[in-house]
Amino acid sequence: MSEGLKIVVLMGGFSAEREVSLRSGRAVAEALRSRNHRVIEYDLRDENWQLPEGIDVVFLALHGTYGEDGTVQAVLEKMGIPYTGSGPEASRLAFNKVLTKKRCIECGVLTPRYVVVTDPQARLPDSLELPVVVKPVRQGSSVGVKFVEQHNQWYEALAEAFKYDTEVLVEERVFGREVTVGILEGRPLPVIEIKPRSGRYDYASKYTLGATEYVCPAAFDSETTARIQGVALTVFNAIGCRDYARVDMIVRDDGKPYFLEINTLPGMTATSLFPKAAAAAGISYPELCERMVRLALKRAKTS
């Protein structure tokens, strides 16, 4: 790839994940500058935004609504400007946890049993036994996620999830080892095991320093590792993703991986899980950012 590209890093946004996105964007911008590119950090605060002239490529460091749900991707498609990550349709599908689960079930991927709730006063579904996990259908970064272990926690959890969406996903809680697998250029990266000290990988465990231990590569036998990576790749392809993504799962004691969700624009701070997995595969953080840009430009040249 030629040196000195003019790259806009779109970051910030106006979703519940704004602060996480800003951290991702600043880290990406610094890494790309270290590779001698001309980088413009663009804090997208609302839907009225315009890119500078002469842009070679846009690096999407956005998370959450508008940035990760296919909306900004569709705008960039109309502009004819290359951008990193999956296209509008795959992004829209992946951002909706229910649509994603249905697609995965069609492909034979195991996923926790679930019910969709649209009424903030709904009773705990009879078809699910406690404990359950309550999540907004369309959110990321564990925003609005609550674990319900007792009946008296139900309505509080439901109210929290409904702050972020009009539909709420209620899943049976599957116990096991929590893992995540990055996919880069159609290949799975080393498996990361997530060990929250609280026993729950919620927003606090995710973003509080020292609250969670990460092991990469995870200590599974080769057969189980291959199974986990295979499921991640199946989900990636089933959703129609391209270039890169990160797939979260729970691996039960019997070695069976249960799909939880897929992130088409995973966190990109230097300590985020996707860069951590790439580092375990021998890919430095600046090189990873450069590869993402290269993939977008390669696609633009062949389209």
Could you write a compact summary of the structure shown?
The protein has 303 residues and is of the alpha+beta class. The protein contains nine helices and 13 strands.
Please write out the topology.
Blueprint: E1 6-12, H1 18-33, E2 38-44, E3 57-60, H2 71-79, H3 88-95, H4 97-106, E4 114-117, E5 132-136, E6 146-148, H5 154-162, E7 168-172, E8 177-184, E9 187-188, E10 192-196, H6 203-207, E11 212-215, H7 222-239, E12 244-251, E13 257-263, H8 273-280, H9 285-302
Parallel strand pairs: 1-2, 1-3
Antiparallel strand pairs: 4-7, 5-6, 5-7, 8-9, 8-10, 8-12, 10-11, 12-13
Helix pairs in contact: 1-9
Structural description of this entry:
The protein is α+β, with helices and mostly antiparallel strands and 303 residues long. The protein has 3 domains: 6-84 and 284-302, Rossmann fold; 93-110 and 175-264, ATP-grasp fold, B domain (D-amino Acid Aminotransferase, Chain A, domain 1, 2-Layer Sandwich); 114-172, 2-Layer Sandwich (Dna Ligase, domain 1), CATH 3.30.1490.20. It is built from 9 helices and 13 strands. Strands 8, 9, 10, 11, 12 and 13 form a 6-stranded antiparallel β-sheet that branches. Strands 4-7-5-6 form a 4-stranded antiparallel β-sheet. The protein has a 3-stranded parallel β-sheet with strand order 2-1-3. Strand 1 (6-12), helix 1 and strand 2 form a beta-alpha-beta unit. It is globular and about 55 Å long.
